[in-house]
Write a structure and sequence with these properties.
With 624 residues, the chain is an alpha+beta fold. It folds into 3 domains: 248 residues, 2-Layer Sandwich (Beta-Lactamase); 122 residues; 157 residues, Heat Shock Protein 90 (2-Layer Sandwich). The chain contains 17 helices and 16 strands. A hairpin with a 5-residue loop joins strand 1 and strand 2. It is rod-shaped. About 1% of the residues have low confidence.
Length: 624
């Protein structure tokens, strides 16, 4: 992922986390405040409706107080002669309607109804009100004022609906009561809704108890304060109970209140979220622009420069970032470091070339040393045979023949010693023939050793040219040759060699490199058996084909390999021998790699012997 993309993702993630966290905090802390304020406002609206109803009742009581103090009304109740004029001028339906009086009762002190009229607020027609449809009201009637000091005012439920009632005792000596009332009808409700700016309904308590849940109804009637409940996300319901004249719940005020405050809170939260996201995006754009110009683009230039150096190995390339900040310092230090690296690389190449040549030379000397032991043995045998040769007997015989001269024939024919001359000559001839054959074998072995040494020395040039000479050979012959070199390389008991070679015919391999590997492996096997003290011990060579490869396994019943050393055997310089140098197996692994194969070791541990496995390709395609 590019640095620019990663920075954009990180900044976007930070903005998103901050925006979501801020939104969660606002919903957790601020939105409940809005909702609480909204509920308080809803309760205030319900109280406003209650106060508006109380104001209507108070206005009705004020009118009732005027009637109670009016002498004309007092005299009318007392039965004055001008009773008819008072009725005609002040108690006509038109006058009462103009005065917004829908119920008027004038009651004498003994409860007798002197005048009573109830009008429908909509049509103005006279209607019957069962609660007052009596010629005489009882002293304990709830609509009657009990004395002149305490007026009666409030709400009453009637057969025609809720009624606002106010009654006062006449102030005259005759006594009596004036009762005024207003029906809580649509006209009054519309007036109250307009005045309070609250959408509400008045429900009789019996009707409301069938529509409202019992738990909510109990809360409303038991609470002196309005009860607010959420209907949905747009509307709140405010509830309050209004008592009648007897102090019992008679009406429920149900106010439907829009949730404008919480909606405003949610709008504010949305605006805050949008504002935060917009600010984050703006910050992202500005930050990415600044980072691109000050960090990303210079780093991209440095990256392209580093990639170009890695592709071309041209450490002298200039970055050319003329800046005074940290990026400029980094580019200059990078360029200075490349110059130092170029110098160090040149020194390292020289050192590595010398070290490589030294390692190759060391490996060659090690392998030459293995072969030289065999060459030395062959040379010593040739020298010993020549020193102990029967040739001196032939020389003595030739001197005797030369001494006899012309009498040699007579000597052979007549001298008793002459009869032994022929058998002696034959014996000498047979001995010389045997010596000649033995010396020929040793000379061939010596020639093979010298040839192998020559090939090992030439391996350095072969390695440098990466050339490979693959010959069709019998693998068994190479094993015999390597075993012969090992057998002659040192004294001591020689383990038994057991060959298990599949019939693969002639196989294309690099003969000298393979002999080099086999000599090292067989020599190590012999030394391991000797170190373990097994006499004579056994070395088993198993050769078989494996697809496009041939596998050569060298098993021994020697000392074995500790598990921790198996992976380190082929490292340059690693050895467990007191007189070892860590070259042999390392050079074998290199030779196996040069032949396109692999070499690895297996062992069950100390005391369980070891097995070295060499896999070689049978074709150039498999080697690749």
């Amino acid at each position: 992922m590019q640095l620019r993309t990663r920075l954009a993702l990180i900044v976007a993630l930070v903005v998103a986390v901050y925006a979501l966290g801020d939104l969660a905090l606002q919903r957790l802390l601020l939105l409940p405040r809005f909702e609480e304020l909204e509920r308080a406002e809803a309760a205030t609206d319900v109280l406003r409706v209650e106060r508006a109803l109380s104001a209507e009742i108070a206005a009705l009581d004020a009118r009732c107080s005027e009637w109670a103090a009016w002498d004309g009304a007092n005299q009318f109740v007392a039965g004055a002669p001008a009773q008819g004029d008072f009725r005609a001028h002040h108690l006509s339906p038109e006058r009462l309607r103009a005065s917004r009086i829908e119920l008027l009762y004038l009651v004498a002190a003994d409860g007798r109804v002197v005048f009573g009229d109830v009008r429908d607020p909509s049509s103005g027609e006279s209607v019957r009100l069962p609660e007052l449809d009596f010629e005489q009201l009882s002293v304990g009637h709830p609509f009657l004022a009990q004395d002149r000091v305490t007026p009666t005012q409030g709400l009453a439920l009637t057969a025609r609906g809720p009624l606002l009632v106010a009654s006062r005792a006449f102030e005259g000596p005759q006594g009596g009561t004036v009762i005024l009332g207003r029906m809580v009808a649509d006209e009054l409700l519309a007036l109250l809704r307009e005045r309070t700016e609250v959408d509400f309904d008045l429900l009789p308590i019996e009707l409301a108890s069938r529509q409202v849940a019992s738990e909510l109804m109990a809360s409303i009637t038991a609470s002196a304060d309005p009860v607010v409940r959420s209907r949905d996300e747009q509307t709140l319901d405010g509830w309050a109970a209004i008592d009648d004249l007897r102090g019992r719940p008679a009406l429920l005020v149900q106010a439907r209140l829009p949730r404008s405050i919480s909606a405003g809170g949610r709008d504010a939260l949305r605006y805050a979220l949008i504002s935060t996201v917009a600010a984050g995006l703006l910050l992202l754009v500005v930050l990415l622009t600044v980072l691109r110009r000050t960090v990303v683009d210079p780093l991209a230039t440095l990256t392209r420069h580093a990639v170009a150096i890695g592709r071309t190995d041209d450490y002298a390339r200039a970055v050319a970032l003329e800046r005074g900040d940290e990026i400029g310092t980094l580019s200059r230090e990078f360029e200075r470091m490349m110059h130092k690296l170029e110098a160090s690389r040149s020194e390292l190449v020289t050192t590595a070339r010398a070290a490589g040549m030294s390692e190759i030379a060391t490996g060659i000397l090690h392998n030459v040393g293995n072969v030289l032991n065999s060459v030395n043995v062959s040379a010593e045998l040739v020298e010993a045979r020549l020193r102990d040769s029967r040739l001196h007997k032939l020389e003595r015989l030739s001197e005797f023949v030369r001494a006899q001269g012309e009498r040699f024939g007579e000597f052979v024919a007549s001298d008793p010693r002459g009869r032994h001359f022929a058998p002696f000559l034959l014996e000498v001839a047979d001995g010389l023939k045997e010596e000649h054959a033995e010396l020929a074998r040793e000379v061939r072995s010596l020639a093979q050793g010298v040839e192998h040494i020559g090939q090992l020395v030439a391996a350095q040039q072969d390695f440098a040219r990466r050339s490979e000479l693959r010959e069709q050979v019998e693998l068994g012959t190479l094993v015999d040759m390597a075993w012969d070199i090992v057998a002659r390389s040192s004294s001591g008991p020689l383990p038994q060699l057991r060959l298990e070679i599949a019939d693969l015919g002639r196989v294309p391999v690099d003969r000298h490199k393979l002999v080099q590997v086999l000599v090292n492996l067989l020599k190590n096997a012999r030394e391991s058996i000797a170190e373990a003290g097994r006499v004579p011990g056994e070395v088993r060579v198993h050769i078989a084909g494996r697809g496009e490869f041939v596998r050569i396994e060298v098993h021994d019943d020697g000392l074995g390999i500790p598990p921790e050393n198996v992976a380190r055997l082929f490292r340059h310089g690693f050895t467990t021998k007191t007189d070892g140098n860590g070259i042999g197996l390392h050079s074998c692994a290199n030779a196996a790699t040069e032949m396109g194969g692999t070499l690895h070791a297996q062992s069950a541990g100390v005391g369980h012997g070891a097995c070295f496995v060499l896999d070689l390709p049978l074709s150039a395609r498999a080697a690749a």
